[in-house]
Amino acid sequence: MLPQIVLAALSHTAGLSRQQQTGSVPDYPTAPAGNPFVSGWYADPDTEYYEGPILGLPDRVTYLDAFSSPDLVHWTKHPNILTIQDVKWATEAVWAPAPIARNGKYYLYFGANDIQENEDADGTKVGGIGVAVADRPEGPYVDAIGAPLIGHYYNGAQPIDQDVFIDDDGQAYIYYGGHSHANVAKINEDMISIGDLDDNNSGNGTATRYKEITPENYTEGSQMMKRNGTYYFMWSEGGWGGPDYSVSYAMADSPLGPFERKAKILQQDDAVATGSGHHGVIQVPDTEIYYIVYHRRPLSETDGNHRVLAYDRMYFNDDGTIAPVKMLVHDNFADGNAIGWKMYGDRIDNWTVAGQHLVGGCKDDGLAMLDTNFTDLVMNASVAVSNGTSERSDVGLVFRATNLGGGSGSSGSSFNGTAAAPAGPAVFNGYYAGISAAGYVVLGKYDSNGTMTTLGQASVARLQAATDYTMSVTAIGSGIKVYLGDTNDALITATDSTYTSGANGVAVHAAAGVFGDVSVDKPT
């Protein structure tokens, strides 16, 4: 069981509404300061907007945290906004929170105790979906009714993974369900009791409260949103602990459905991450800017519980359908962190983030690497040499790298928890493109002994120390090209098929380097 869980993120009067007034709307293709965008093992996010974006995120543990942001770049952690000590009937865990506000109060719906159908049938266990209430978005929250709001199986749906939605007419609905069944029910205006469904009855004059709406391939993770009068029911498919976890959706004219599966819109990308699912949605108010916020598993992680939080842009087609979401890799270090990066080399403690740049230096070779595995790629970054100790001092980009080794550790990625290994120069198998203030650009390939074979070199006049240069690399099949500055002409063109895929990052060689605005993508 993990030591932490997440719930909601929020922002106050300095939030998106003020940004819109000043024209600074957060309009990004992906999290600009990198995914994961907060540090820690977290899962099952849900979102709400309280004078700014609020984001929810949990995993099955004994307390819930919250994160808030005024700009979707800088995040503040609000720990322990709800714990099992606050919910007397929650004896095991709380997870998957869903936040919403009404009538000046803030409500938090959550799953607890992971009740199973046989335990419900014989009454041996209390569990299900609870509701807590607070006077502020960041809590503290207290149990609103002292018992589960939904504490039994109806229509075969496990009472977990809820989302609460308030329609334009003021009617609130709860969508939920695990074990491959989904239900919808009305929530009364008090937000702490279940109402009757007016248009659906049992046939014997008794009102029905829980209507099954299970679409094809539904597993869990219900989510509802409305856009231009259309209701979008979204859910997770596949196994939560496996790489095939994903998100699909349906569209309907009514909040009660029927919901017919349209398509899968978010799934693993073997170059970026696996296990992508259980999401929330952020809409920047009064805009068509939408983000899908979800958890995913870094490529090198094998533990099913090791999940991190990410968001990417969600686009709609002209007919209202949702385009497939693309996981993008980008980090401009604007949050002051290097979350998700891992450092290798003799002086990993020298890697810092300053002035929206990643800064590092080693007496031998040092690496800062992302957990990626691109084959064909386009990689861009700003690169600068601060100083060097020899004629061969250079800094640059690493790609298709495997067998990373040497002194290793992590920086800005507290969720990783990896301690620094014994000091030593970083080693890897892969390609490297670097620049030197001595006036050259070099492309080479490294072997695991730390030996570089030069594939190409170009002299460049007027290269200045401590000056940012835009460096770009394209690698398509065996063809590799290196660019410097805003030009369509490659400085170096080479053909080599030694390495076909691997991780991406930056490197220093007997020098100090400064890197910014790093991005990696597949060629179009």
From TrEMBL:
Pfam families: Glyco_hydro_43. GO terms for molecular function: hydrolase activity. SUPFAM superfamilies: Arabinanase/levansucrase/invertase. Keywords: Carbohydrate metabolism, Glycosidase, Hydrolase. It comes from the Eukaryota. InterPro entries: Glyco_hydro_43, Glyco_hydro_beta-prop_sf, Glycosyl_Hydrlase_43_Enz. Belongs to the glycosyl hydrolase 43 family. PANTHER family: ENDO-1,4-BETA-XYLANASE, PUTATIVE (AFU_ORTHOLOGUE AFUA_2G04480)-RELATED. This is Glycoside hydrolase family 43 protein.
